[in-house]
Amino acid sequence: MTTAINIKSASTNIVNLPVLEISKLAVGYRGSEGFQRVVHEVSLLVRPGEVVALVGESGSGKTTTAQAVIGVLAENGQLESGVVRLNGTDIAGWSQKQLDTIRGRKISLIPQDPTSSLNPVKTIGAQVAEVLQIHRQGSRAEIDARVIELLARVGLSQPELRARQYPHELSGGMRQRVLIAIAVALRPALIIADEPTSALDVTVQKRILDLIDELRREYGTAVLLVTHDLGVAADRANHIVVLKGGRIHEQGPTAEVLASPRSEYTRKLLADAPSLGKARIARTRSPRVSGSDDAIVVGNLVQDFSIGGRRDVFRAVDGVSFTVQRGTTHAIVGESGSGKTTTARSIVGFQRPTSGRIIVEGIDVTNLRGESLRRFRKTIQLVYQNPFASLDPRQTIFQIVEEPLLNFDPLPREDRARKVQAILERVGLPQPVLTRRPHALSGGQRQRVAIARALVLDPQVLVLDEAVSALDVTVQAQILALLNELQQALGLTYLFISHDLAVVRQISDTVSVLHNGRQVDGGPVEDVFQRPGSAYTRELIGAIPGQRNADRH
Amino acid sequence: MTGLNTIGRSLLRDAGILETSSLGKRRAASATRWLKTIRSIQPGLVLSWFVMAVVVLWALFPQWFTSYSATVGVARQQLRAPSAEHWLGTDALGRDLLARIIYGAGNSLSGAFVAVSVGLLVGTTLGIIAGSARGRIDGAIMRGVDVLLSIPQLLLSLSIVILLGFGIVNAAIAVGITSIASFARLARSEVVRVRASDYVEAAFGSGGTFSRVLLRHILPNSLTSVIAFAALQLGWAILTISTLGFLGYGAPPPTPEWGLLIAEGRNYLARAWWLTTVPGIVVILVVLSANRISQSFGRAKT
Description:
The structure holds two protein chains of two kinds.
Chain A: H1 2-13, E1 20-31, E2 34-46, E3 51-55, H2 62-70, E4 77-86, E5 89-90, H3 96-102, E6 107-110, H4 124-134, H5 140-153, H6 159-164, H7 172-184, E7 190-194, H8 202-219, E8 222-227, H9 230-236, E9 239-244, E10 247-253, H10 254-259, H11 264-272, E11 294-306, E12 313-325, E13 329-333, H12 340-348, E14 355-360, E15 363-364, H13 370-376, E16 380-383, H14 397-407, H15 413-426, H16 443-455, E17 461-465, H17 473-490, E18 493-498, H18 501-507, E19 510-515, E20 518-524, H19 525-530, H20 535-542, H21 547-552
Parallel strand pairs in A: 3-8, 3-9, 6-7, 7-8, 13-18, 13-19, 16-17, 17-18
Antiparallel strand pairs in A: 1-2, 1-4, 4-5, 9-10, 11-12, 11-14, 14-15, 19-20
Helix pairs in contact in A: 4-5, 4-7, 5-7, 7-8, 14-15, 14-16, 15-16
Chain B: H1 3-20, H2 26-39, H3 43-60, H4 97-133, H5 135-150, H6 153-164, H7 168-195, H8 198-205, H9 210-246, H10 258-266, H11 274-301
Helix pairs in contact in B: 3-4, 3-11, 4-5, 4-7, 4-9, 5-7, 6-7, 7-9, 8-9, 9-10, 9-11, 10-11
């Protein structure tokens, strides 16, 4: 409590005394190649009650900077030089023991992954109580009462029940709320939120960010928000700091940075961010294939899964219908658990639907088995979300892309090699990549390989299951541009599965919105965005980050 | 078994080294790499490989290491303590103990290799069948494996030796059969894990037939940890075969075999400590070395 009072007096008396002042911070890691510096001369200020967003792609050093502030760098990390002033005191050289006295009390962290950040064998209540006990905040009864109060404050229903539950009984959003409760328990002066919502659905993301905002206003806490999403930063932050390669490329008030970015890199980030990008991918319709008809027809698709026992059935997809015209892109949108991936897998023929009709390029998928199913693979190909898991780590890129060709009518070796090289060139990969293995490639390059593997059989339909969700905005924009180009050149039909409405709006022609396995909305993209047909769609659209600022302009 | 992911990661680091070194820097890089290799040498591991190498050489060329016979004793030289003439002393029949240990290496090691091969081949095959067929076949195989696991291993190997008849090869086969269950379980779990991965599904999705996907993706990716386990089993097999030998179910006297040596020396423990102690230490050293080597496999690959 005393800290809260301190902050208040500080903020009223000397408004300009920053809560956190980082100057010329340099952090490095000892690795197999010796010492490598990843953060260079980073300086920034966080004033009381302010939100400062640290924005950058993966590997830009934003998380390292945040970790250095609170002293939780990885074992091989080292704060080389620089000053970290918390309320005027330099804590850069402090030992772990000294830092323990301020962690939780003056400065606290909301970690990225709510699943791995809670102890699975302790109750929620015990984990929230822990931070209070460590800093000796009153008797047991007082602590228990405070825990319930905190859980209620972060918006958990039935806080008494929640306190007795274990982490696995809570959803991802609820767990993130618990972590927030732990972070704000002692009303610290500064909260470091390290990608607090990256693992969550858009609607949950919005609610969590609203909560952080609300608590910030109520407690006067400053927030250092680490995020890769410029849209989130634009919505929530007063100040934006753009990091790249461990150096600050630009910093300033949010409105200024967004309106007139000074650095080339910020301009690129702004253009690439799907939620902010004014320059939409120029979508020119590919010329209609003669005798234009539907590439995919899905009618009343139902997919049940038996769970646990014999008779218990979970209905993952319940009566979904849509048609996709040849050469266009249809998006299936929904949160995790909405049945969008299940629908995609049924269409590709990886599972047999319980009932309903799926026709792809005139082939009834529901009746395929054995050899005819194998032949059908030439028509439709799936690109997976995670390019790190969808490529065999033991194969070279050449083998990966060549493999589908070996499965069908064998071509002579030289023809195969020529075809593989042509398709790799097509997806924009350099020749030397051929002999490498997937681990030597970046995420974006791997996804290009996955697309090349899918295209090498000349399929008519490509199903992209969250194919760009795991990538940085810049890489994401490149892959989306590539997909667009390929569609126009080859007349492909795309089925685009995504939770990201901003991306969907950019790339697709028609869209189906799924919620709990049911189709709640559907039609041409602009229709759905302009006149959403259901409350759920409106909520989804409202949750896209980056809109507040767009309105301000 | 998180084998695979970490393989990727550890390789990633190596690849990083390779690629960042451009042509100009390559020489400097190779120098630092040498330094790094020298620094990363683990004495324990080197010692383990040394012990293994010596024992393998004993097994292959015993005559290089001793001029004494392993089976023919010298009269009036019974139960001599270690001396310059007989480095490890002699036994009750006047046979040189060092010679018997050296010649025994061949029996013990070949027994262990037979045992591990039986377990590796049969167990892994069963595990792969169970993991890739799933359904009823999987159930049947794995319940059989459960039955095997439920019988204490020594009891099981004793029963099998009695069924097959005494002898070093039969003892080795018995030990191999008892390890089938562990190999089958490990292989199955690895196959199931790899089968569930995206790249295997992608391989099916690009038109791969079952056998092709099995050969190209599932087997290569699931066998790494099985091989590491086989190295671990080698030490265990030496120990178990020695146990069977000690109990009299292995090689018949006068064949030199480590377990048998320990058993024979037991009667003279009060007068000739070296007869049990030295073979015992040899067995312990070899088993520990095998474990250490297997561990290093595991670390490199998992």
